[in-house]
């Protein structure tokens, strides 16, 4: 298939959504599809090539990048609407079999697409903004709409409630790229300068105050014998300053995808912040797939999105969101019960085998082929 994938950003960055886009593009390219990535380029933007994207996001796949001179880079609605108009007029788009994007403005603009299109989304937008339900319903039923690829059943149900046809919805969880070899815990602790004789609970992801990391700092106060490592710092912010005041908390710089498995291997327990925040923003964090693949016990909050992958006592230990006492007790249980920790870790690793980016690309490919065949009728 010839697939055009427009991005709305013009510079390289560390946002999880950008990493997800690059991983999706690369995985589809590895399936043998002809992928053209369209990027807006402002007057002050650097020239970027496919090699630049592959190196930055550490992905492998033979896709091409085309930068279009444009004033409309950015996430603001008016910019993405105008950018999509430019994308629709681009010859590469008109020659494609599929226009594939994760730009929410497609809900308003999809009917103007010159070729069959599919949208890839993580949030339950029709529930977040009920006013867009008529747009979702209209666009999802358009003849050129192949469908919507949602990252969780939790999100998919919001589109079903907005009357999107079920046959045009595919739930495709995100994924991870397996490391070439499984890192050794002791060796990685030595290499990363971590203590060999202290239990380590680790969080990997963006470090800022919106991620519920205050709950991990509170957890560190309850468990002073545990070293809490927060991987994902991009400078000195509120969380980093608070971490520096605690002897058992260490903030580490952002880890590139190839370096992350070493950090995860060094830990005894992997943490999803046990905050109430996930209840308001259920998006199945990408970190969760790397956590499962690390084969470590996971401590996480009970939430409707993570419940699709994590089962209490089977592959994770779940605690009520916002209950710092339960989180502290759960962490102690995972660190003190070796049999339980090993069982959860083994089940997590087993589950991850079906959650790679390549496995996701295969599912998406089958969905697109089936939908294209229906459109052609």
Number of domains: 2
Q: Report the portion of residues in β strands.
A: 15-25%
The whole-number mean of residue pLDDT values reads 94
What is the general shape?
Answer: globular
With strands numbered from the N-terminus, the spatial order across the biggest sheet is 3-2-1-4-5-6-7
Question: Structural class of the secondary structure composition?
Answer: alpha/beta
- CATH level 3 topology of the largest domain: Rossmann fold
Are there runs of 5+ residues with pLDDT below 50, and where? Answer: none
Helix and strand element order: EHEHEHHEHEHHEHEHEHEHEHEHHEEHHH
Architecture of the largest domain, CATH level 2? 3-Layer(aba) Sandwich
Concise description?
The protein is of the alpha/beta class and about 375 residues long. It has helices spanning about 15-30, 50-55, 75-90, 90-95, 105-110, 125-130, 135-140, 155-160, 185-190, 215-220, 240-245, 260-265, 275-280, 285-295, 325-335, 340-350, 355-375; strands spanning about 1-5, 35-40, 65-70, 100, 115-120, 145-150, 170, 200-205, 225-235, 250-255, 270, 300, 315-320. The chain has two domains: about 1-175 and about 355-375, Glycogen Phosphorylase B (Rossmann fold); about 185-350, Rossmann fold, CATH 3.40.50.
Structure commentary:
With 377 residues, the chain is an alpha/beta fold. 41% of the residues lie in helices and 17% in strands. It has helices at residues 16-30, 50-57, 77-89, 91-94, 106-109, 125-128, 133-140, 153-161, 185-192, 214-222, 238-244, 260-266, 277-280, 287-294, 324-336, 338-352, 357-376, and strands at residues 2-6, 34-41, 64-69, 98-101, 117-121, 145-150, 169-171, 200-204, 227-233, 249-253, 269-271, 298-301, 317-319. The strands form two sheets. A seven-stranded parallel sheet has the order 3-2-1-4-5-6-7, with helices on both faces. Strands 10-9-8-11-12-13 form a six-stranded parallel sheet, sandwiched between helices. Strand 6 (145-150), helix 8 (153-161) and strand 7 (169-171) form a beta-alpha-beta unit. Helix 9 (185-192) packs across helix 12. It is globular. The mean pLDDT is 94.
């Amino acid at each position: 298939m010839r697939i055009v994938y427009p991005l709305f950003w013009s510079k390289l960055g560390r946002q999880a959504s950008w990493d997800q886009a690059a991983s999706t593009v690369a995985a589809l390219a590895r399936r043998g599809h002809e992928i053209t990535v369209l990027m807006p380029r402002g007057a002050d933007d650097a020239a970027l090539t496919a090699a630049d994207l592959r190196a930055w996001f550490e992905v492998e796949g033979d896709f091409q990048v085309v930068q279009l001179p444009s004033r409309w880079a950015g996430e603001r609605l008016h910019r993405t609407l105008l950018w999509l108009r430019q994308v629709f007029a681009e010859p590469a788009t008109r020659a494609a079999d599929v226009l594939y994007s994760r730009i929410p403005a497609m809900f308003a603009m999809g009917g103007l697409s010159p070729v069959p299109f599919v949208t890839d989304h993580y949030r339950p937008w029709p529930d977040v903004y009920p006013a867009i339900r008529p747009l979702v319903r209209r666009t999802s039923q358009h003849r050129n709409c192949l469908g919507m690829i949602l990252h969780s059943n939790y999100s998919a149900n919001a589109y079903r409630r907005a009357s999107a046809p079920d046959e045009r919805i595919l739930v495709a969880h995100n994924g991870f790229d397996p490391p070439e070899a499984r890192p050794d815990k002791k060796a990685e602790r030595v290499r990363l300068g971590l203590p060999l004789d202290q239990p380590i609970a680790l969080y990997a992801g963006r470090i800022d105050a919106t991620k519920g990391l205050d709950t991990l700092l509170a957890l560190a106060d309850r468990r002073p014998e545990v070293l809490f490592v927060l991987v994902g710092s991009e400078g000195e912010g509120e969380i980093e300053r608070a971490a520096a005041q605690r002897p058992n908390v260490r903030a580490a710089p952002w880890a590139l995808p190839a370096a992350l498995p070493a950090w995860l291997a060094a830990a005894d327990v992997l943490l999803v912040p046990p905050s109430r925040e996930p209840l308001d923003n259920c998006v199945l964090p990408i970190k969760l797939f790397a956590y499962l693949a690390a084969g470590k016990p996971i401590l996480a909050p009970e939430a409707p999105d993570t419940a699709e992958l994590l089962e209490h006592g089977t592959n994770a230990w779940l605690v009520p969101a916002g209950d710092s006492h339960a989180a502290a007790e759960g962490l102690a249980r995972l660190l003190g019960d070796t049999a339980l920790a090993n069982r959860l870790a083994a089940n997590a690793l087993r589950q991850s085998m079906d959650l790679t980016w390549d496995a996701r690309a295969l599912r998406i490919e089958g969905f697109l082929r089936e939908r294209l065949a229906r459109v052609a009728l």
